[in-house]
Design a protein that fits this description.
By secondary structure, the chain is α+β, with helices and mostly antiparallel strands. It is built from three helices and three strands. Strand 2 and strand 3 form a beta hairpin. The longest helix is centred in the C-terminal third of the chain and has 11 residues. It is elongated and about 45 Å long. The chain starts with 9 loop residues before the first strand and ends with a helix.
């Protein structure tokens, strides 16, 4: 039996919105305007950020 690789936690629009106290729609707009760091992963239309990529940005943009 092959061991499973550990899951890599990614943050998406919802998690970023919750962490900043902003609306999900606003987070999407900011991403489309280039105000968020580039996503670490992209699955279709869904971007994902590693914590070490997005956490500094979240700290700067909390309400």
């Amino acid at each position: 039996m092959q061991a499973e690789e550990p899951a890599i936690p990614l943050l998406g629009y919802v998690e970023i919105a919750e962490a900043t106290g902003q609306d999900v729609g606003l987070i999407r707009v900011w991403k489309n305007r280039g105000k968020l760091p580039s996503p670490d992963f992209q699955l279709g239309q869904s971007p994902g950020w590693l914590a070490e990529t997005i956490n500094p940005w979240i700290q700067e943009h909390r309400k």
